[in-house]
UniProtKB/TrEMBL annotation:
Keywords: Alkaloid metabolism, FAD, Flavoprotein, Glycoprotein, Signal. The lineage of its organism: Eukaryota, Viridiplantae, Streptophyta, Embryophyta, Tracheophyta. Its cofactor is FAD. Pfam families: BBE, FAD_binding_4. Residues 1-176 form the FAD-binding PCMH-type domain. SUPFAM superfamilies: FAD-binding/transporter-associated domain-like. Belongs to the oxygen-dependent FAD-linked oxidoreductase family. It comes from Abeliophyllum distichum. It comes from the Eukaryota. This is FAD-binding Berberine family protein. PANTHER family: OS08G0158400 PROTEIN.
Length: 459
């Protein structure tokens, strides 16, 4: 809803056109914003309070798969859906571990980390980046060797647009079984949802790493009595057959009461459609679309949880959800553990590893524009976020950079100081923030690439 519009939108087909845009930006003094898919929760790739231009890399979407070496080069304007579709067209046993929204651009998603439904078995997208092509503030085109290991470290989890314009990533593909199993089971308060969700917290990060059970919490209308209640939706992927999944669930999480009829076996690529919300038997061609799913106005926040939330804490969440109109808000619990913990906090810039049970994504959305309507919903989610403080990580209270939140520190001038940036920097990036500042100071001391929450140089 920002009144400031871009002076120009550049949609390059060639790297030389990006170099030209960088030159023109320096000559004109108009700041550049870089957009690959519009995933940024605060829209910093296409919204600003100062004059700016957008370099939108949507036309740079080439994908080259090497099935023999299990690698791929993917340009950052490609979407996750296009990447998944292209991999599946070459192999039924190769895949990539990244997010569930098929229209998200590769560039922003991977450079911020890239959590997805296979992360407990194969960790996050950024852990599988093995090379990159980046254009720096001088217009130089760099690969891993020429950019150096510090900069290559930074763009894997620290966000790419603070350091340059990443035009391509080389990634390691993962090996998957030909058949996977999915399920989406709902439990309401009347079906002991409070107790089941409480128990889920003790199981989700420790269960078989081939299983990822995501949990969505929202207010719904009960099909039994027509009254409002809380629905807990256990949306899950198991990398294997249903007959192997059921004994695991019966042993580790019998409280859910999962039965074979709840489960569906399918190839991995069809599970991508399932988690994106497409009906069964939808053509895989839908994954090649670059048209984003229609979204109303919304506000998002995030947290990491290191100790299970007690039942009385969950009941407080239910009260907040009951305040919002049905389906206007939800909390998404994404379990960690498994292979995510195989990496140290400093191995790449993404720091959220051992010690996290799950991540929370808070979202509220509304259809009606206007300041009063927006304030009502934003105030609601801020109150919920404040309520959650005793139950989430502390010192710092951490957050996921791919769920960007300007409430935790911003500068309308897009020229962030170290002191101000440290407010959000340590929340998103923990102690890796200090090293990211050093890298920024080395590769972009003039702070050419910047936005309201970019990594600042020391000077």
């Amino acid at each position: 809803m920002s009144p400031m519009k871009p002076v120009v939108i550049v949609t390059p087909f060639h790297e030389s056109q990006i170099q030209a845009a960088i030159y023109c930006s320096k000559e004109s003094g108009i700041q550049i914003r870089v957009r690959s898919g519009g995933h940024d929760y605060e829209g910093l790739s296409y919204v600003s309070e100062i004059p700016f231009a957008i370099v939108d890399v949507r036309n740079l979407r080439s994908i080259s798969i090497d099935t023999k070496n299990k690698t791929a080069w993917v340009e950052t304007g490609a979407t996750l859906g296009q990447l998944y579709y292209t991999i599946a067209s070459k192999s039924i046993t190769l895949a990539f571990t990244a997010g569930v929204c098929p229209t998200v651009g590769v560039g922003g998603h991977m450079s911020g980390g890239g959590y997805g439904m296979m992360s407990r078995r194969h960790s996050i997208a950024a852990d599988h980046i093995i090379d990159a092509k980046l254009i720096d503030a001088d217009g130089q085109i760099l690969d891993r060797k020429s950019m150096g290991e510090d900069l290559f470290w930074a763009i894997r989890g620290g966000g790419g647009t603070s350091f340059g314009i990443v035009v391509a990533f080389k990634i390691e593909l993962i090996v998957i079984p030909q058949t996977v199993t999915v399920f989406n089971v709902t439990r309401t308060l009347e079906q002991n949802a409070t107790q089941i969700v409480h128990r889920w917290q003790y199981v989700a990060d420790k269960i078989d790493e081939n299983l990822l059970m995501r949990l969505f919490l929202r207010s719904i209308t009960s099909s039994r009595n027509g009254k409002r209640t809380i629905g807990a939706f256990f949306t899950s992927l198991y990398l294997g057959r249903v007959d192997d999944l059921l004994p695991i669930m019966q042993d580790k999480f019998p409280e859910l009461g999962l039965v074979k009829e709840d489960c569906t076996e399918m190839p991995w690529i069809e599970s991508v459609l399932f988690f994106a919300g497409f009906p069964r038997n939808t053509s895989l061609d839908v994954l090649t679309s670059t048209v984003p799913l229609v979204r109303p106005y919304f506000k998002g926040k995030s947290d990491y949880v290191t100790e299970p939330i007690p039942e009385h804490g969950l009941k407080g969440i239910w009260k907040f959800l009951d305040e919002e109109i049905v389906n206007n808000a939800e909390l998404e619990f994404s379990p960690y553990g498994g292979r995510i913990n195989d990496y140290s906090e400093s191995e790449i810039a993404f720091p959220h590893r051992t010690g996290n049970i799950f991540m929370i994504n808070y979202v509220v959305h509304w259809d009606t524009p206007g300041k009063k309507e927006s304030e009502r919903h934003v105030n609601w989610i801020r109150k919920l976020y404040n309520y959650m403080a005793p139950y989430v990580s502390k010192s710092p209270r951490t957050a996921y950079i791919n769920y960007r939140d300007l409430d935790i520190g911003m500068n309308n001038e897009g020229n962030t100081s170290f002191k101000q940036a440290s407010v959000w920097g340590f929340k998103y990036l923990k102690n890796n923030f200090r090293r990211l500042v050093r890298v920024k100071t080395e590769v972009d001391p003039s702070n050419f690439f910047r936005n309201e929450q970019s990594i600042p140089p020391l000077s």
